[in-house]
Amino acid sequence: MGDYTEITMIDGVAQILLNRPRHYNALDIATARELSALLLRCATDPEIQCVLITGAGEAFSAGGDIRRAMSHPRGPGAVFHELATQVHVCVTEIRRMRKPVLAAINGIAAGGGFSLALACDFRVMAESARLKQGFTSNALCIDAGGTFTLPRLVGLARALEIAALDEPVDARQALAWGLVTEVAADDQLMERSHALLKRIRAKSLHTFGWSKTLLSQSLETALETQLACEREGLVDCASHPDGLEGMRAFLERRKPLFNR
Q: Model's pTM, two decimal places?
């Protein structure tokens, strides 16, 4: 547990809480450092199978702490340089981690909080929550991987619309646009989030790791290179206990038991 984040283990799921509720879980340098350390721990701890990120209070995260940046003696540019560096570590850890990472969006996710949620593999959004790109309304450019993930989720034209207009996106619109995986009633957000992770964990997490890596790199990789990576993954999966169990179960016409 840190000053601004908490981690709780729930049946193999590391639940990370952004815990600055009075500031709508805005990301300052200290919070980003704590979050990156927790994500690194999650990536390397064999007891952790999945990661869930959510916010305390009324917000998921309102993004970068502009008030603190504007009051800093070195000026906001210097602050955002350091803050962006720390948040980028968080985004990189999420994308490289060969484990499912889910954002349970309990309230507003804006600016860097919006981009952080988009970096996750899955997003379950409360009905009352809102998404807001946020950066461009403050004459800032989108950061924290948002320019990478947003067009890949919704397409270039929709991403440019979101960047130019910066209208709040409610849960139903977010689902229709493909920004979130599922919408849940406010009082069922955590239940539905853990239920989704349970469904994912019923499959092979080793295979999930390969799928996440291969799909993430596919848009930046030449076909021949991607085919070679797929072959490497297939051979590794076929030799793994989960792969052997899956193939035996197929031949024996029974339900496989993975992640043992």
A: 0.94
